[in-house]
Design goal:
The chain has 4 helices and 5 strands. By secondary structure, it is an alpha+beta fold.
């Protein structure tokens, strides 16, 4: 437990501006796929069986879309707005598949800020090595709140 210890939080809503961008790239490795598949017990043959995938229009195994969503969530949690933030709503589509060992370049852009609702909206796009769109959508995010000071009521939830 980290009571009283300083935590690095992401940027507060007042410090975020419309038009801000974040770019990052992720490469999907075997270890990532195996961790995901093991944690979720997802044994979809489209994700892991080369013989099955070769008989589909995809031609080879694809990366589970929820793994890409996890990369988006991680970027929000780590970078923009950063630690302490939470995705409230998302609308994402996946026009093309991502294949094993693929690299995805993500672009996030803040499109709207609603201080009263303590919410920001962001657009996200993911492109593969060929600059083809593999993911796009919109996010509504709750940026980190300024923590209140510790009082006798703070520990009621523990």
């Amino acid at each position: 437990m980290l009571l009283g210890k300083k935590r690095k939080l992401g940027r507060k809503i007042e410090k975020i501006q419309t038009g801000e961008k974040l770019e990052l790239s992720e490469t999907i490795e075997d270890k990532d796929l195996l961790l995901y598949l093991g944690l979720t017990n997802d044994n979809n043959p489209l994700f892991i069986q080369h013989d099955y995938a070769s008989m589909t229009p995809f031609k080879k195994p694809i990366v589970p879309q929820v793994m890409l969503i996890g990369m988006v969530t991680a970027a929000v949690s780590k970078y923009l707005p950063g630690p302490g933030s939470s995705i409230k709503k998302q609308s994402l589509s996946f026009p093309k598949p991502v294949y094993h060992y693929g690299k995805v370049h993500f672009l996030f852009q803040v499109t709207d800020i609603d201080q009263e609702a303590h919410s920001i909206k962001m657009r996200v796009e993911g492109k593969n090595e060929k600059s083809e769109l593999v993911m796009e959508g919109d996010l509504e995010i709750c940026p980190p709140y300024q923590p209140k000071s510790i009082t006798s009521n703070t520990l009621d939830n523990f």
